[in-house]
Amino acid sequence: KMRISSFIWILHLMNLSESQGATDVLRWKRSSSVSSDCQAGCATCSAPNGCLSCRPRFFFHLELDGMRQRGTCLSSCPRGHYGARSPQISSCAKCNADCASCFSENFCTRCHPGHFLFRGRCESSCPHGMMANALMECTPQIHCRVGEWTSWGPCVRKKSTAVHKRGEETRTRQVLLSPSVFGGPCPHLSETRKCGIKKRRKNRFNSATITEGKIISNEITIKSLKKGNYYNV
Questions:
Q1: Which pairs with CB-CB distance under 8 Å and at least 24 residues apart come from 168-171?
Q2: Strands 99-104 and 91-94: what pairing?
Q3: Residue pLDDT, tens place only, 101-147
Q4: Among 92, 121, 180, 188, which is least packed, fewest CB within 10 Å?
């Protein structure tokens, strides 16, 4: 009889303990907005374990607190983790070992030192024909391409040129494709060379000068009958 009574008392204490634990969780849930032990993103929490579940749009994440783990609810996952959403619970999952950060389990966005990002994966080296940029991302190696030369421009004499009959003429070309960071650079886009300036011909009449229809000199002049003046043509 004493054994039966002791057994019933033990069951009563166990039920009381479970009821007290549920009350503690509920109490933390109600006071989560003001409690320092229960974060704002938590839906339910307990003093020793932190967050037990999260509010909508928050991710559940376990953080080390000394020798034990505590639950936290974050609006975005920390570095090295990505947010995995599901109808049951949204949680932070760890990226692959080579990824410093990732968008999903199979898509890295940044790599650890010594690895290079190529199409969402972290590789030990970039594929052939590609080079790593400053962010350690594999990018195509593009060399510069230029168009054809234009025709030579007019021969122009510069003021600094001592010889009056010598000048310079220039031709240019355009860039068709700009190079990548480690691609081949563009060649010079303009060329200048020396040239000879052609002497301009002056229109001069080597005929006799006439006035009133009569030849009077070796230049063509016309007498103004009204003013009595001569004009050279």
A1: 168/192, 168/193, 168/194, 168/195, 169/193, 169/195
A2: unpaired
A3: 999 988 999 999 999 999 999 999 999 888 888 889 998 888 899 99
A4: 188
Whole-model pTM? 0.48
**Structural domains for the chain:** 27-94 (2.10.220.10), 146-196 (2.20.100)
d(CA 211, CA 219): 11
Q: Residue for token digits 């950060």?
A: 101
Q: Which residues contact 103 (CB under 8 A, 6 or more apart)?
A: 82, 109, 120
Q: Mean per-residue pLDDT for 168-178?
A: 93
Residues in the chain: 233
Q: What is the DSSP letter of 127?
A: P
